[in-house]
């Protein structure tokens, strides 16, 4: 069950964290929030909820006027130039369990957000007090960074502050400085509910019950080129979570996983500590770090094969999954 605003405020009181609270109308932007609490003690902070291509999520917290370049941040995390994007609203609700416009570091109190990474800008530490939403955008609370740190430590988080406006060089000899903030696992959101009801007719094929017969006719007669969208499915067919339609994509997926971990482990401290043994040390760590993710890829392939075998009427030997 998600933590409520009142429960959060009670927790802050139990932790003896000094804070002030200000009620105001629902606000959706930092600018609107500033209209109501901009004259209060403390600086308003903006909070971004973003995701990478591997479905790993991050909360970025900084002073409202801090310039955060998403492309630069993506490179500093070791994700390439275009590796970050804003998280969808359903992720906000399912993972942080807060309404739209209420992103806040305090959402990490929820168990569903345990794998979300938090990046705090060092500018927060320069202020006497900062202002955040307490899980709801109809209220703001003001507290100092010591109070924020105390809360984060109470939920098992080790707060770290970084310069989000920095633009360091990232390359072969300069590994990404924020790679350690990349979560080790990925979060999977539940599939959204179907808008139409699926039924099975006498021939064993699935049909869609809809109030729009024309739409149904178009959907059932138009063939699909995507192997994951087959209209005639077996009653026991398994829907794969992802499709590897060629070997190149499969190899790229493996390389992306391994590269991310290599960049995470290849830090200046590791180089100094291990010296000539760095290669062996990284190899051992890769085995541990990549095992579960590569296993997930293998499971995806197994599910896809199972799906194809149960869906297509022709012999299994003729089904090609990976083209080489």
Automatic annotation (TrEMBL):
GO terms for molecular function: aminoacyl-tRNA deacylase activity. InterPro entries: ProX/PRXD1 (IPR040285), YbaK/aa-tRNA-synt-asso_dom_sf (IPR036754), YbaK/aa-tRNA-synth-assoc-dom (IPR007214). Residues 24-150 form the YbaK/aminoacyl-tRNA synthetase-associated domain. It holds the Pfam family tRNA_edit. Belongs to the PRORSD1 family. This is YbaK/aminoacyl-tRNA synthetase-associated domain-containing protein. It comes from Dipteronia sinensis.
């Amino acid at each position: 069950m998600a933590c409520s605003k009142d429960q959060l405020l009670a927790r802050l009181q139990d932790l003896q964290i000094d804070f002030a609270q200000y009620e105001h109308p629902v606000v959706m932007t930092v600018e609107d929030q500033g209209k109501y609490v901009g004259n209060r003690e403390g600086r308003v902070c903006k909070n971004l909820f973003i995701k990478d291509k591997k479905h790993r999520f991050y909360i970025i917290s900084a002073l409202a006027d801090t310039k955060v370049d998403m492309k630069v941040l993506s490179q500093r995390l070791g994700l390439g130039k275009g590796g970050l994007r804003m998280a969808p609203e359903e992720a906000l609700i399912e993972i942080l369990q807060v309404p739209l416009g209420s992103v806040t570091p305090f959402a990490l109190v929820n168990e569903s957000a345990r794998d979300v990474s938090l990046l705090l800008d060092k500018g927060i530490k320069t202020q006497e007090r900062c202002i955040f939403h307490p899980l709801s955008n109809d209220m703001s609370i003001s507290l100092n960074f010591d109070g924020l740190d105390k809360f984060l430590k109470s939920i098992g988080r080790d707060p770290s502050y970084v310069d989000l406006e920095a633009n360091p060089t990232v390359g072969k000899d300069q590994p990404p400085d924020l790679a350690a903030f990349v979560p080790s696992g990925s979060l999977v959101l539940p599939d959204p509910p179907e808008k139409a009801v699926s039924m099975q007719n006498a021939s064993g094929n699935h049909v869609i019950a809809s109030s729009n017969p024309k739409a149904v006719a178009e959907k059932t007669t138009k063939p699909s080129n995507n192997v994951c969208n087959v209209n005639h499915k077996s009653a026991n067919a398994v829907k794969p979570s992802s499709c590897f339609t060629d070997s190149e994509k499969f190899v790229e997926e493996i390389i992306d996983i391994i590269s991310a971990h290599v960049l995470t482990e290849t830090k200046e401290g590791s180089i100094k500590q291990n010296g000539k043994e760095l290669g062996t040390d990284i190899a051992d760590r890769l085995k541990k770090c990549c095992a579960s993710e590569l296993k997930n890829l293998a499971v995806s392939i197994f599910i896809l094969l199972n799906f194809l075998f149960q869906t297509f009427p022709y012999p299994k030997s003729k089904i090609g999954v990976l083209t080489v």
